[in-house]
Design goal:
This protein is of the alpha+beta class. It has one domain. 16% of the residues lie in helices and 32% in strands. It has 4 helices and 10 strands; from the N terminus they run ααβββββαββββαβ. It has a 10-stranded antiparallel β-sheet with strand order 6-5-4-3-2-1-10-9-7-8. The radius of gyration is 16 Å and the shape is globular.
């Protein structure tokens, strides 16, 4: 395959943003609320499944499970809104200690942290929808793949495929 010079200069973020418009998403976005949305990567190696927040702290706007398919690994995820409610800061954590923990403890169990962006079917970028709102067609988690390669869920018997940074809506949970 021949790659022209312009294509060779594209960064991973450019490729991920192009994927927003290149990967078809099901029409589920109109039928599913965000707290029931289920997303997958294009290699079908990961699943991100949102859940209702319930009685969690007010700072948490969304929560989810992040599973590495074909392994027993299921990490916990939370989303916290910025003060202006326009940005959704997400974290994926695996085997975090309970109770009183230090910053070092949290850093050791954090798989990924960053902004979560949503996209509709036409590629318009926005903040992650809150609970009760219609599910986003796609999610963009910048540097998700590299973060997983550097985390505790990577290695033999664990994750061995780094996901793309774009996850596509693939279903609606119960």
């Amino acid at each position: 395959m021949r790659v022209n010079r312009a294509m060779a200069r594209l960064t991973p973020v450019h490729w991920a943003m192009m994927a927003f418009t290149a990967i078809p998403a099901p029409a589920l976005a109109d039928e599913c609320v965000q707290e029931k949305a289920v997303y997958g990567d294009m290699d079908d190696a990961y699943e991100l499944r949102f859940e209702p927040v319930g009685s969690q702290a007010a700072a948490t706007s969304n929560k989810f499970k992040f599973a590495v398919r074909n392994t027993p690994i299921v990490a916990d995820g939370v989303v916290m809104r910025s003060d202006d409610l326009l940005r959704a800061n997400g974290m994926i954590m695996f085997n975090c200690p309970e109770g009183d923990v230090t910053g070092a403890d949290l850093r050791a169990c954090t798989v990924w942290q960053g902004m979560i962006y949503a996209s509709d079917l036409t590629g318009n970028i926005s903040a992650l929808p809150a609970e009760g709102a219609g599910a986003a067609a796609r999610l963009f988690l910048p540097a998700l793949g590299p973060s997983i390669r550097e985390s505790s869920i990577w290695g033999e018997g664990k994750a061995t495929v780094a996901p793309w940074d774009v996850l596509t809506l693939k279903g609606c949970g119960e």
